[in-house]
Amino acid sequence: MRRLSLLIIIASALMTTACNPKAQTSGIDVTNLDTSVSPKVDFYQYACGGWMQKNPLTGEYARFGSFDKLAEDNREQLNGLIKDIASKVSEKGAIEQKIGDIYNLAMDSIKLNEDGYTPVKADLERVASIKDKSELSVVIPELLLSDIGAYFSIYVDADPANSSQYLLQTYQGGISLGEREYYLDNDEHSVGIRNKYKEHVAKMFELTGFTPKQAQKNTEAVLRIETRLATTAYDKVKLRDPYANYNKISVEELRKLISSIDWNSYFTTLGLENVNELNVSQKESLVEVGNIIASEPLDAQIAYIQWKVIDSAASYLSDDIYAQNFDFYGKTLSGKETQSPRWKRAVSSVNSMLGEAVGQMYVKQYFSPEAKERMIKLVRNLQTTLGQRIEVLTWMSDETKAKAKEKLDAFYVKIGYPDKWRDYSALNIEKDSYYENVKRANRFEYAYMLAKAGKLVDKDEWQMTPQTVNAYYNPSTNEICFPAGILQYPFFDMKADDAFNYGAIGVVIGHEMTHGFDDQGRQFDKDGNLKDWWTKEDATRFEERAKVMADFFDTIEVTPGVHGNGKFTLGENIADHGGLQVAYQAFQTVAQGTPLAHKDGFTPEQRFFLAYATVWAGNIRPEEILVRTKSDPHSLGRWRVNGALPHIAAWYEAFDVQEGDPQFVSVEKRVSIW
Ligand SMILES: [Zn+2]
């Protein structure tokens, strides 16, 4: 729900002056290449063909790329740490006891299967015992504290209009299929998913103690209520408009707006006292929640809420329930063939429940202070270069450039891991059941978040754990963050020289940075407040240039007969373009002082682009190409390379690409923004 720009990317640290460049490697693994293809004909195949052959898709994955491979390695490392702890007896209350007990409960298939759906029984009975709709104002928030989101949810984040202050905010939800289109569209694919979903809901009711007849009846109610929620839910485009999602009102106004919920009971149950105001992020959606509560029969609402309980618990119960859950969400919805092994799921659970405790152990072992220091230098170099490039832009007015400069200088940079760590002493982990502990951990997290409402924003808090293989830009704090998990090969390599590291993690950093200044970033000022700081003319000139990019990606055929969506992927394609331009120039500046040699048969410039391409190496199923073309604002890996590089002059020089070569784009048709 936070407005983070994730990258699915990475960062790597970089390096330089401290090391002797002659001793550094090229970082290029020549077995990743497919030299049977010319780089002038198909650069992606040339740079990544060997990688693709070495890393075929397994049943567990719909797409598997460099990023996923790193996440797999990362999981192995975490498993080593966690398994070791779990094999020893620890003192009750110690962090080792908590990590060990969660892991062991997740791994104990005998107990999970013996328990069946028993762990969830009390919650189902609690919901069944509701006698009057007024009780919903207690039960809904009570379940939300365990992260069971019926109808809508509540969270705390910076007030978009007053970014130094935390604000309570509502968010639409309550539909298990996630995307509203699955409930509303009538194309063959959506109808098929909907029908399978109905079967799935009914089967899950049966697996948790309901008769087939009750299960059928409950399923009808679930579909009807979720379809109502989907109908008023904001679509993807509207959710991206920060103004459309900002409606700060008083609790007094909220009471008038939605009278079927007793807001006093609701907030008291959440443990919130003295709530005066909140942001109703999607107003019409929340109003419809009120209508549903008022108009739907109580037994239908009980069925719907019970479904939320079952759906949330499914991953933590017996194997038959888990298998049914995977059959729908994994196979039908995502095209996966096989479940992840139990140990991977156990590691993920420990990771999400005790993220910073695990993270603290992880960085001690896998992230050095030297890596952090080098990353800081790399980020600073890119920051300086982006400033220089903004200075000479012809489409941005001087007035806007001055504001952009201020925003760039105000960047808050986070690398590796937080300076202060979360305290988990108030989280109690028992040996009763896996599910009970998942709920305890969720309650611990929710209480922590809700306690922030109305307080000053803590900019030092991290929105990702250090072991995460990803990176983000957060507009409300104007911060960029590169966790330790992503600062590894092939994104970052301490042993490799600047050509490699600027081409890989450097481009990722540049990508994240430009998000602070593009059509999304322009809506938030240097302090993170919702405020457009561009002039109208800047916007017009930006759009003219952006159109060149959108038109180019529209022409790309991602699979026979299907084209890319240039408008939908525009923001991310521009960020890749900006990241390449900024990182390349920063690399050239650094290399001026200490020129790099040819290594492994490649010039430094060639290695820069090869390292970039390797970040996007991957294999993908044809079904997944279709899914992502519809749902992912990032272009597919192949086109983040073959679509991006033909707009970069230095790439033509590095590989001597000439007019007449298949990837050649004439100078007047190339994009020029950052
Ligand atoms: Zn991005």
Automatic annotation (TrEMBL):
Transmembrane intervals: none
Peptidase M13 C-terminal domain sequence ranges: 470-671
A Gene Ontology biological process term: protein processing
UniProt-listed InterPro entries: MetalloPept_cat_dom_sf, Peptidase_M13, Peptidase_M13_C, Peptidase_M13_dom_2, Peptidase_M13_N
GO cellular component, one term: plasma membrane
Peptidase M13 N-terminal domain: residues covered: 39-418
Top-tier EC class: hydrolase
PROSITE patterns: NEPRILYSIN (PS51885), PROKAR_LIPOPROTEIN (PS51257)
Cofactor: Zn(2+)
The entry's keywords: Hydrolase, Metal-binding, Metalloprotease, Protease, Zinc
Any Pfam family matching the protein: Peptidase_M13_N
Catalytic activity, EC: 3.4.24.-
Record-level Gene Ontology MF annotations: metal ion binding; metalloendopeptidase activity
Keyword Cytoplasm recorded: no
Family named by the database record: Belongs to the peptidase M13 family.
Protein name: Neutral endopeptidase
Organism: termite gut metagenome
